[in-house]
Design brief:
Elements (H helix, E strand, L loop, with lengths): L1 H13 L5 H21 L16 H34 L2
Helix pairs in contact: 1-2
Length: 92
């Protein structure tokens, strides 16, 4: 991680130089090396693989929680607009 961060910071310093390609390459190298090393430094992470037929938790969340909230919001907005229209039409 130190190597990637050092290369990225040195690369950022070289971007304003006469040859900005060097700075860009050092920055990209720092990012390409630093990010995987940084992610690998998490010791208590695990990957759990599941069958492809199992629905993802995100899909379950969208189906069970998010869609009813969105439908309720549209019904509420539509009811508000309809109420305002009828109020101004019949009671100016």
């Amino acid at each position: 991680m130190m190597l990637g961060g050092l290369a990225a910071s040195i690369g950022i310093m070289f971007v304003g130089a006469k040859r900005p390609v060097t700075g860009v390459l050092l920055s990209l190298f720092g990012i390409l090396v630093g990010v995987p090393v940084w992610r690998a430094s998490y010791h208590h992470t695990t990957a759990v693989f599941s069958h492809s037929s199992t629905p993802s938790p995100l899909a379950h969340y969208v189906k069970e929680k998010l869609i009813p909230v969105i439908v309720g919001a549209f019904i509420g907005i539509g009811g508000t607009i309809l109420t305002l229209y009828l109020r101004h039409k019949y009671w100016p």
